[in-house]
């Protein structure tokens, strides 16, 4: 039940935020922000929606400065995924020095709601850090992907 509600919520967010395209979200105006905030299915406060729009504007600044948001983010891990070999869940950190550095830089650039715990979670989801336990069925597959020759965009 929870998973299906999450999928619906994710779909709605993706729809109202133009597929999470920062170029489009950064150009949202007050009328659109109020319309999104008034959507009862999303239950997002005006301030939260405005934060999303402001963060999209920050992404656009980063793109102009660094060429892409990907280049900026991957630069914090020297353009190579961090491969960890944790054996127990208690060893997996909720934040890391790299996440703290990235978070601090993002805050300096004007991003909001980007604390080191959120940033570390993003790094895990985006593959910048491999925190699967060594006996997890996904660990070896993720490590193989991380170790292949590749180039970020």
TrEMBL record:
Q: Which residues bind Zn(2+)?
A: 132, 136
Alphabetical list of Gene3D superfamilies matching this protein: Hypothetical protein, domain 2
Q: Which SUPFAM superfamilies match?
A: DNA-glycosylase
Sorted UniProt keywords: Metal-binding, Zinc
Biological processes, Gene Ontology terms: base-excision repair
Q: Does the keyword Repeat apply?
A: no
Q: Does the keyword Ribonucleoprotein apply?
A: no
Q: Per the record, a Pfam family?
A: Adenine_glyco
Q: What does the record give under GO molecular function?
A: DNA-3-methyladenine glycosylase activity; metal ion binding
**UniProt-recorded name of the protein:** DNA-3-methyladenine glycosylase I
């Amino acid at each position: 039940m929870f998973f299906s509600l999450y999928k619906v919520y994710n779909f709605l967010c993706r729809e109202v935020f133009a597929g999470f395209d920062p170029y489009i979200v950064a150009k949202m105006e007050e009328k659109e922000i109020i319309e999104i905030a008034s959507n009862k299915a999303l239950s997002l406060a005006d301030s939260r929606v405005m934060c999303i729009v402001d963060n999209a504007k920050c992404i656009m600044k980063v793109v102009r400065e660094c060429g892409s948001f990907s280049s900026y983010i991957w630069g914090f891990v020297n353009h190579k995924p961090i491969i960890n070999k944790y054996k127990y869940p208690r060893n997996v950190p909720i934040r890391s020095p790299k996440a703290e550095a990235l978070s601090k830089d993002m805050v300096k650039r004007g991003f909001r709601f980007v604390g080191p715990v959120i940033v570390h979670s993003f790094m895990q989801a985006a593959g910048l850090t491999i925190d699967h336990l060594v006996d997890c069925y996904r660990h070896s597959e993720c490590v193989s992907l991380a170790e292949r020759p590749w180039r970020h965009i």
